Amino acid sequence: MKERKNWSSQLTYILAVAGATVGFGATWRFPYLVGQNGGGAYVLIFCIAMIVIGIPMILVENAIGRRLKINAIDAFGGHKKINKFWKTIGYMGLMGAFGIMAYYMVIGGWVLNYIAKIATGILDLSSNITLEVTSKFYNENINSSPLHIAIATLIFVIINYIILIKGAVDGIERSAKYLMPILFLLMITMVIRNITLDGALEGIKFYLTPDFSKINAKLFVDVLGQVFFALSLGFGVMITLSSFVKKDENLVKISVITGFLNTGIAILAGFMIFPSLFTFGIEPNSGPSLVFKSLPIVFSHMWGGEVFAVGFFTLLMIAALTTSLPIYEVIITTVQEKLSIKRQKAILIVLSVIFVLGNIPSLLATNILSDITIFGKNIFDAYDAISATIFFILTSLGCAIFVGWVLKDEAKKEILKGSEKYKKVIDFWFVYVKFIIPIIILVVFISSFYDNFIK
Questions:
Q1: Which residues contact 353 (CB under 8 A, 6 or more apart)?
Q2: Is the pTM of this model over 0.90?
Q3: What is the pLDDT of residue 1?
Q4: SS in 3 state form for 122-156?
Q5: Hey, where are the domains in the chain?
Q6: Domain 10-454 carries which CATH code?
Q7: Which pLDDT tens digit goes with each residue over 327-349?
């Protein structure tokens, strides 16, 4: 097998991982979950959960990925003592990656659609608009216009193709070098604009002041689910990206930086949204449609609203792109290596199959295929629920068990390479991963499965 290229530096790898973890999870999903769960209490528990389970699980997947420097399925092999059964974990991760890309690219299409409609004035933000206006626009342009969304989604897929064709490391690394600084700049600009609004303080209080009465079992489940989603855990991303990491890189340091960077960006995303919502009297608990229905109302009340709206949705598009590239890469690398085919062919197969079997059914879920339900959910929601509730969590559980009970000292030795000064930390991490994390993940799985498929 052809020897893999490595990331050019630790910084570029961190940028690539940051890009993979800072997608819609931080800029779309995190804010609406904060709004639904009462604000500051959710933010506090999220920060704790990132330390308690997020960072240790990043290290788990980094150990698996760098050990053999191979695709996300064969990473669960390596020698005769490891039963082939363990590769099932890799296949579950691959299914989860397919599931998320099935609807994720469609949301990318929504964002491109909004950018075009705002920039051309079709969604007119030059004067104050109401929820009735934005809801009607959302329904007409998202739910009832499959052709427009299909074209926008295809454009987003083509953008991914153009970058991916340059190579696993070169394409993602180069895009991360340019896109991540642009993303940070846009976020900071939006934050400054929001926190300087007249009524921003109320939004900041809601966002940062914990209301401990809001802390319940559902909040914990939502938080832990968001940690997996936000860090791209459980669908092979960390395993695949770390397979391009040099053997002497400090994985402990990288994992900690990744966790804190993701947490910081997610919290920053909240400052882009909640101050403006409270300034203009918009309820923060509108759920997944928050950025598509509620925020345009905010922008219509804001000086230079059209410019800031285009900037915000451009930010969302960049965040989506930096995440979709490595998720695609999980599947592309696996197809390329398992079928022994050229990269360009593997890319075409993967992007085409996901577009036909995933993206098209998802964008038709609220119109032509609205009568088709899976577990009582439309196709779009089913892809999300099945991936996040079953595949992501079970794959993460399998990874923790694989490291703690199968690899054992081999995993510790892999982490120690480049991280020798953290030996005591690694010893504690190993015991924690072996005994505690599987229990936490199992509780999350049972609770999430009950909420999504039984309740």
A1: none
A2: yes
A3: 53
A4: CCCCCCCCCHHHHHHHHHHHHHCCHHHHHHHHHHH
A5: 10-454
A6: 1.10.4160.10
A7: 999 999 999 999 999 999 999 99
